[in-house]
Amino acid sequence: MASILVCDDQRSICEMLDISMRKDGHKVETVNAGEAAKKKLSSANYEVLITDIKMPQTDGIEVLRHARQVSPETSVILITAVEDYEAAVQAVKGGAFDYIHKGPGMLDELKIAVARSVEAITLRRQNFAYKRDAATRNSLDNIIGTSAAIEKLKQTIRTIAVTGSTVLIYGESGTGKELVARAVHACSPRASEPFVSINCGAFPETLLESELFGYVKGAFTGANQNKRGLFEVADSGTIFLDEIGEMTLPMQVKLLRVLQERCIRPVGSTQETSIDVRVIAATNRDLQDMVANNTFREDLYYRVSVIPISVPPLRERRDDVELLASHFLKKYSAAAQKNISRIGSNALGALRNFEWPGNVRQLENAIERAVAMEPTEELHIELDSDRPKARAAAAGGNGNGNSVPAEGIDFDRYVAGIERSLIESALQQAGGVQTRAAELLKVSYRSFRHLLKKYDI
Predict the structure, then answer these.
(1) Which has the higher per-residue pLDDT, 273 or 139?
(2) What is the pTM of this model?
(3) Structural domains in the chain plus CATH codes
(4) Do 211 and 266 meet the contact criterion of CB atoms below 8 Å apart?
């Protein structure tokens, strides 16, 4: 099924195409003038536009150009009653999907063209989804561990994946809640469809709304063309709302309506679009306490927590620490083009006994940092009460305050290590919420995002 806009100055043509396309299950709207079509395209998203070329005032070529500008994903099919070679050339150059002559057999040709255009759109969207998730689609394999807690978690994922129910994943920051969400999607009947992830705490309210629901041209300053929201991108698949507890109350109301009505309205639009999306949410906060404190809506809580899943912290699955550390060593040793084949026995013992307040993410960062600084074939990591650290000698310092060793120090590398450490610490204290971490470091959100990109965090 596609959403189709038909534009023709002959009402009889519009009525005929409306009836024919609706019989095939499409959602159809019709207009009788080019200007009206341009307004429609600017206020709503259509997958297919069928427009006559020869129309008074605003012709089909101008409507095509407008469609390419405000809604590039829309497939445009031009129809005409006049054999005009020049018009056909203009149509192809302008980006038309097809060019069909009015006359006997037009309906059959149009049905084929619409089917082809819908197939092309579907393939384009699937290709985008596959590229986005290629590295993590077989997600059960990415949940590393053999402890009883992890085996129980994997069994829960297999059990609930086949349902279409909304899932709420609980867990401390860094435990791997997104990996669990991807595993639920990968084991579900929706596995071949898109998996779309968004961190609700990483966007201001107005930006989060446009990211989730999309917008139309002119909805706000800078909205120069229509944009599909992530709910629409995830149609037929799964959307993962990470840190849902960071949503403001007004956004919670809007999300609740989407979950209830199963339709979205892009910012600035008056039209709604039906969606078929499985919602998986995650939080490191106690939503029941938030409900009691009136910071999270009770009705939304019951909507998103149909199936709750708890992800155990790393300190409760110590049997998996060595397996995880070995996995990260292999990953980052290859990335750094180093031949570090093992972890020292003292380091392994220290890793097992460490509390890991930042969970698996903290362990991964510790291994990555140690690999970057390790000059031998055996990995060594020193641990203190706060956080793991790589050997100071490998970093070019001796770890004693601000003193500089006699042989000198790699200043840029040393300072970069301190910067990265502070950023990770701020993220940990902020529960992974980037805006809060930026406030802790007293830098702007834009500067903080730049630092995350700089250090690939």
Answers:
(1) 273
(2) 0.63
(3) 3-131 (3.40.50.2300), 149-312 (3.40.50.300), 314-405 (1.10.8.60), 410-457 (1.10.10.60)
(4) no
